[in-house]
Amino acid sequence: MPTTPSTNLILEIYDRLLAKTGNRHWWPVKYNSGANAGFEISAGAILVQNTAWSNAERALANLHTASIWGYSAVNEAPEADLIEAIRSSGYYNTKTKKLKAFAQVMVEDYEGDDANLFALDLPELRTRLLSIYGIGEETADDIILYAAKKPSFVMDTYTRRLVDRLGWGVDKNNYSDYQRLFESHLEPDVEMWGDLHAQLDGHAARVCRKLNPKCNECVLLDLCSTGQTNTG
Length: 232
Prior knowledge:
Blueprint: H1 7-21, H2 38-47, H3 53-65, H4 71-76, H5 79-85, H6 92-110, H7 114-118, H8 122-130, H9 137-147, H10 157-166, H11 175-183, H12 190-206, H13 225-231
């Protein structure tokens, strides 16, 4: 029977995953740091759509090598050059248009400085991001949490899989319902939320896999209704 998690349960899950793997220091930034990391994180959030992070990471490296780096550079680059640089990320024609759309907004509306965009209050920032072509809820929340450093919990395929297998009651077609499970039980904490999301993703990728989950190796087995059924 579906259940609703408590704050203590979510924190217990985080503590166990953290003890297993240590802080994951997500979002990975290679070429810029601190206040200058916004472009790399935002571009990565678009490039990782419907693909593994390793593919998006190669695309970012290619953009950097090709000197198509920064909002102005992406805005001005020929589409053919962008397509070639990001080919490893898949759906490269569509993602080129998405990168172009985001870069154009940044250049034309925010003087090419994402600090101007990120200065918006959280609800306004999220609404603005969602108004840009190619930015859905997950991508918007990636940008908000990891680049803008504001508390908006990220839900993705991995995180939703864990929620479903833990037996928590949620509307499977409603992103905000999944998100609310975490945001309604946790104090806003950008660093903790960022690592918790990364821990959940990593656990789903390594252990709670879509096919052949490794339930006997799972540190959450005693908390998971699906795992107990699979190993019972």
